[in-house]
Amino acid sequence: MTSPARTAEIIGILGGMGPAATADFYAKLVSTTPGSSDQDHLRTVIWSDPTIPDRTEALLGDGPDPTPWLLDGSRVLREAGATVIAIPCNTAHAFVPRIADHVGLPIVHMIGEVARYLTTLSPRIRTAGLLATTGTVRAGLYQEWLDRFGIRLVLPDATSQDHEVMTAIRMVKAGTHGDTTTALLSRAAQRLTEHGAQAVIAGCTEIPLGLPADAVDVPLIDPALVLAQALVRRATSESTARQDGNGQDENGQDENG
């Protein structure tokens, strides 16, 4: 893949949901970007605001609406020079429709990218399992997108959701995850595969921090990694288009000579 270094794109990461997941996402963006030097990487602005109210609590009616915080953070990124926004939090995507028309920048939709990615796998994925926050599940975020691509979604039962998935997510957020976290999530994932899941979506950005891919018998889909790959493709295609359009880089220097 061509290096996206000469792209005009500046990635704005709206993070803090939680901080560890934001750091993990940036590491994935760096590792996904092709290149052999600092200058080959993407310019990035990170706004990590852990004061954003809990997204699941808001969706369940137990906490304040995080929309004003998300909108303010998006504006911070825009004013800092970002040209596109990435939100490495699945549950926060329930609030994207509320901010999208007010940000003034495109938002690369992580859940939509995951749905498209699933269609590229072989053998074809007809049923996927989801490990996510209760807020993401209740909001139907993945159900809506996977329906568009004809993929059936399998969800944990209420006991597994509360006592395995959410317990593990809270452990990661508290920085206390370890073997117990992995055991909880791997059991939840196994139940999904027993109900026909051909792949399991780690639909909360904390989950890959507590569930290694080799702890699951089917492909474990990491939405943060899929989002990082989508951003690199976007920047690379934008860079190629600029070069193909006039033979010059962004500083007006001739690329051909």
UniProtKB/TrEMBL annotation:
<protein>
    <submittedName>
        <fullName>Amino acid racemase</fullName>
        <ecNumber>5.1.1.-</ecNumber>
    </submittedName>
</protein>
<comment type="similarity">
    <text>Belongs to the aspartate/glutamate racemases family.</text>
</comment>
<dbReference type="GO" id="GO:0047661">
    <property type="term" value="F:amino-acid racemase activity"/>
</dbReference>
<keyword id="KW-0413">Isomerase</keyword>
<dbReference type="Pfam" id="PF01177">
    <property type="entry name" value="Asp_Glu_race"/>
</dbReference>
<feature type="region of interest" description="Disordered">
    <location>
        <begin position="236"/>
        <end position="257"/>
    </location>
</feature>
<dbReference type="InterPro" id="IPR001920">
    <property type="entry name" value="Asp/Glu_race"/>
</dbReference>
<dbReference type="InterPro" id="IPR004380">
    <property type="entry name" value="Asp_race"/>
</dbReference>
<dbReference type="InterPro" id="IPR015942">
    <property type="entry name" value="Asp/Glu/hydantoin_racemase"/>
</dbReference>
<feature type="compositionally biased region" description="Polar residues">
    <location>
        <begin position="237"/>
        <end position="250"/>
    </location>
</feature>
